Amino acid sequence: MSAATLTDERRARLHGRVKFIVFFTITWNVIEAIIALSAGALASSAALIGFGLDSVIEVASAAAIAWQFTRKDPELWEKATVRIIGVAFFALAAYITVDAILAFTGVREPEHSPVGIGIAVASLIVMPGLAWFEFRTGRELGSKSVQADAKQLLLCIYLSGTVLIGLLLNSLFEWAWADSVAALVVAVLAIREGIEAWRGDIESPLEVLEDLDHEEVTP
């Protein structure tokens, strides 16, 4: 069923689903941001601080979606909302890059962070399912802003994995540079996603999501 052929009842149900996703995303990421930023500050971890800031940006992105879907005609606000999400990606990339450079130059030396490892693992468990659910909803609605917000969640998955690797390498082998490398990888990903969001070119970066193009969506 395409966005053009959705019944009013189905569209209303999907709008309700978007609101639930937004509420869950904001709640989860507020908690995640508090933990990650606190642990990152204590450990002087550029990657972990970037992870926490990504959670803050995800809250802003979800809030933009919430605002859009409180409008009488959410579809009219698609372009503006997608642009806001694109700017959020760029802001994240800028901060992470600066913080990683400071770590590379020795201004900040990351320490071990068991709490950081724990929150990264928790995110890897929760985010994939939520991202898939939101992307599927946005695809059925034909909403680029909802799909762009789902890509924020996908970036969180990349970020969680990258940060986890950096933290583990630093903890196990005392490779302090791994934290900065992890942060820069995330910055590059954020720039790429920001450019795509700004252009309105929302493509699924996961093969499982690509399959939705060929899947018939049922109520």
Unreliably modeled segments: 204-219
Helix proportion range: over 70%
| Separate helix tally | 7
Q: Specify Rg, calculated over alpha carbons.
A: 18 Å
**Could you say how many structural domains there are in total?**
1
Assigned CATH class: Mainly Alpha
CA-CA gap between termini: 10 Å
Strand percentage lies at under 5%
The description of the largest β-sheet is: none
**What CATH architecture label applies?**
Up-down Bundle
- Structure class: mainly alpha
Domain Cation efflux protein transmembrane: 24-195
Protein name: Cation efflux family protein
Organism: Microbacterium ginsengisoli
Main location: membrane
Give structural notes:
Helix 2 (46-68) packs parallel to helix 6. This protein is 78% helix and 0% strand. It has one domain (3-214): Alpha-lytic protease prodomain-like. The protein contains seven helices and no strands. The protein is elongated, with a radius of gyration of 18 Å. By secondary structure, the chain is mostly helical.
Summarize the structure.
The protein is an all-alpha fold and 219 residues long.
Write the layout of secondary structure elements.
Layout: H1 8-43, H2 46-68, H3 78-104, H4 114-141, H5 144-173, H6 177-199, H7 207-210
Helix pairs in contact: 1-2, 1-4, 2-3, 2-5, 2-6, 3-5, 3-6, 4-5, 5-6
Domain Cation efflux protein transmembrane: 24-195
InterPro entries: Cation_efflux_TM, Cation_efflux_TMD_sf, Tmem163
Keywords: Cytoplasmic vesicle, Endosome, Membrane, Synapse, Transmembrane, Transmembrane helix, Zinc
